[in-house]
Amino acid sequence: MKVEQIYTGCLAHAAYYIESKGVAAVFDPLREVQPYLERAKKDNAKIKYVFETHFHADFVSGHLDLQKKAGAEIVFGPGAKPAYKATTARDNQIFEVGDYKVKVIHTPGHTMESTTYLLIDENGKEHGLITGDTLFIGDVGRPDLAQHVVADLTEEKLAAHLYDSLRNRIMPLNDDLIVYPNHGAGSACGKMMSKETTDTLGHQKKVNYALRPDMTKEEFIKELLTGLTTPPGYFPKNVIMNIQGYESLDQIMDRATTPYSPEAFETVANETGALVLDTRNAEDFAKGFIPNSINIGLDGSFAQWVGEMIPDIKQEILLVTYKDKEEEAITRLSRVGYDNTVGFLKGGFDSWKGANKAYETSDRIDATTLENLIATKKPLVIDVRKKSEYDSEHVIGAINVPLNEINQHLAQFPKDQPFVLHCAGGYRSMIAASILKQRGWQDFTDVKGGFDAISKTSIPVSDYVCPTTLL
């Protein structure tokens, strides 16, 4: 049996495609559905089903557009109540995809409708499990997301359900089954996922902390809930979109791919209050950018940081991109529900400069320069990495303000003394720098190459948490 994993690294997301005798099925598709349609066309196949493992929080699924464009039947697990035409399957129900079979296994815990799909090949042999966010490689799904949509679904209740689902529905299955999860390392849907994106169930039973056979339910709940970070603010909004429905990506693209001259761009920005989002890399942004714009580069975890740093999912957005990167930026915004892009700067930032429009710059230094500064002036160093990264190793005396918490800790950034920002590689620190510039800070710099470069110098670093860490 052939199962094709379609992995999107910037979201650490895996969709799956199967086909047998001209009949195809897609599991947990992303918002843009053309790749799935083209894949089926290559096989001269018709997409009969779109199987959803649950109502996703970290992305907007493409199930509705596949239903519209391919005539596919949308399938959710038991208990799902979508606000559009879809099949809510029964536990143990079997769907036929050509000579293949897909068996529904209800596995509540990550969410109450969470479902695992058992894949059975043409010979009746059980091949693998599409596990969604129930079981990852090295981890299991976090149980604290549904309570942001349904208040009485506490994380403790969901963790208890997940324990039962894993023990009673997943672990008794054959060890040679291949586990096909919805996410890999880097996703905010778990806390310690492996970089591997598939494994056998038997191996996971040996190495996955959550599948220890001697673990009690109380121990499981405690371990699962320990170390969970606050989920991104856009997660509940994506869940609602996946339950209630959304606008077609084609309509969004038609509206968003509107080119504006520098003069028109400035007028639209002023009249609409749209956020100017610059998606160039940090180095180019630092050399020149439109005043009050925010930098989140397409060359990193773009959609995730948009979701973290732009609180209003309905915020109107104007884009500054490299040439021919407009559609990519719009698509990646819509993957996480930011559907209100109203246009882009024609000709990019060069056209803005060419029109003699005002622009700003942001100071950057290399790690060697920081080494000299620390030796002579002992500047305040602010580390915007995650707390776990900071706790592992950090510049002695640096304080920690994680990027996703910057808006809650603006008072920690002084305006009466210079300071230095850094992250791991320079991507996040420039996001922070652009936000601070927008809010009126000027006397600071950030470190090119971040802590990766700092660690190659003789700057003193510590592997314990110093008392100036900000929580």
TrEMBL record:
Output the superkingdom of the source species: Bacteria
Q: Which SMART domains match?
A: Lactamase_B, RHOD
The residue ranges of the Rhodanese domain are: 270-361, 375-463
CDD domains assigned: POD-like_MBL-fold, RHOD
Q: Does the keyword Metal-binding apply?
A: yes
Keywords of this entry: Metal-binding
> Keyword Metal-binding on this protein?
yes
PANTHER family assigned: PERSULFIDE DIOXYGENASE ETHE1 (PTHR43084), PERSULFIDE DIOXYGENASE ETHE1, MITOCHONDRIAL (PTHR43084:SF1)
This chain belongs to the protein called Glyoxylase, beta-lactamase superfamily II
Q: Which organism is it from?
A: Maribacter sedimenticola
